[in-house]
């Protein structure tokens, strides 16, 4: 990877967001779907995609891009873009990719960011400003 390459997204985020308008264009990894439900109360793929379409990924910040290590087809190299976002009191992480052969998008991760301030979340829950099941 060339110097500085990690700081430039592989994909146009708006193109990804528009692709989410057709649920057949996007595959949601099962682990990403479970974490979206557990941490963001987005229970279905449709809810996750609507959240993205409706600009639920506030304060979007590009983190990096990297090669998809578990790519089952090494002859078709695929990059993954990762972003942090804010939704209410939650700091989230989304990672997605595009397969040029199938022309489909995949959401690999949709979870709390490792940079989330858990102390603040617990204080907001204790103060009654955030429901105990919310994160």
Describe this structure in words.
This protein is α+β, with helices and mostly antiparallel strands and 135 residues long. It has a single domain, classed as 2-Layer Sandwich (YaeB-like fold). The chain has four helices and five strands; from the N terminus they run αβααββββα. The chain has a five-stranded mixed beta sheet. β4 and β5 form a beta hairpin.
Describe the structure using short key phrases.
single chain; globular; alpha+beta; 135 residues; YaeB-like fold; 5-stranded mixed sheet; 5 strands
| Strand segment count | 5
- CATH architectural name: 2-Layer Sandwich
The average pLDDT score comes to 88
In what order do the strands lie side by side in the largest sheet?
1-5-4-3-2
Distance between the termini: 35 Å
Q: What structural class is derived from the secondary structure elements?
A: alpha+beta
How many domains? 1
User: Number of DSSP helices?
Assistant: 4
Strand content: 25-35%
Note the overall shape: globular
| Helical fraction | 25-40%
- Gyration radius over CA: 16 Å
The main β sheet shows up as:
5 strands, mixed
Sum this structure up briefly:
The chain is α+β, with helices and mostly antiparallel strands and 135 residues long. It is 27% helix and 30% strand.
Task: Compile the SSE list and pairings.
Layout: H1 13-19, E1 26-28, H2 30-40, H3 45-53, E2 58-67, E3 79-87, E4 90-99, E5 104-112, H4 118-126
Parallel strand pairs: 1-5
Antiparallel strand pairs: 2-3, 3-4, 4-5
């Amino acid at each position: 990877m060339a110097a500085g390459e990690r700081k430039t997204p592989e994909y146009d985020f708006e193109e990804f967001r528009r692709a989410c308008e057709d649920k057949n264009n996007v595959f949601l990894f099962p682990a990403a779907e479970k974490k979206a439900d557990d941490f963001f109360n987005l229970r279905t793929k449709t809810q996750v995609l609507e959240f993205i379409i409706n600009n639920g990924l506030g304060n979007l910040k590009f983190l990096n891009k990297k090669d998809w290590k578990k790519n089952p087809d090494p002859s078709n190299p695929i990059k993954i873009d990762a972003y942090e976002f804010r939704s209410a009191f939650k700091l989230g992480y989304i990672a997605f990719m595009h397969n040029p052969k199938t022309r489909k998008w995949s959401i690999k991760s949709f979870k709390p960011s490792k940079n989330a301030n858990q102390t603040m979340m617990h204080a907001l829950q204790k103060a009654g400003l955030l429901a105990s099941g919310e994160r």
